[in-house]
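Model it.
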Amino acid sequence: MSAEAAELPTTSYIAEPTAAPKAAVIVVHDWFGLLDHVRRACESLAGAGFLAVAPDLYDGKATIDPAQAEQLLGGLDEPAAIQMLRSLVATLKTRNGVLRVGAIGFSVGGSMALSIADVGLAAAVAYYGTGEPKDVSRIRCPVLGHFAEEDEWPATTRPGGYVDEYFSKLRGREVDARYHLYPGTEHSFANEDVEAFAPSAAAQAWKRTMVFLGARLR
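Modeled.
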């Protein structure tokens, strides 16, 4: 870890590219915690030339059990976590060479990524998570969404449903916003560490994520 990296939150997983980065990506884990799939995502981002930072919102705790994950999330001070993420955006922008900052979030982390889109993010990617439709007026940056076909959180992804409404409202405000629906998948399909993992859909979603970030952060 470099001296510069030490300035970032000490509970973060940090992956640095071989060359000086011109962009950084914050990766926000889901309710299971900072599992290996989040670390692998960071390493993939670093391999593409981004500085990747994944804050550990649970201070070292993680699980693959949904009941335990619910307890961990229930004990999280979400407003404080979002404020920390906002501060992290500002911190990253002070690092030499970093011109743009993006965010990727999974599930509740996707909602958090969208919650900080009003502090100068250049791009946001949300996996099976959104904000409230009433809050879209705060978002200015391009948004990419990935959603499971069978998912009741936060609500249905059917045409005209919650997700469709959210992205329609974004586009209505001239935000570059799009989402993809992955047939035969369920919530957490991109999490390699849990049973819902769907390798093909996860790989396709990640490829789309990297293309999206490459076009908007470089």
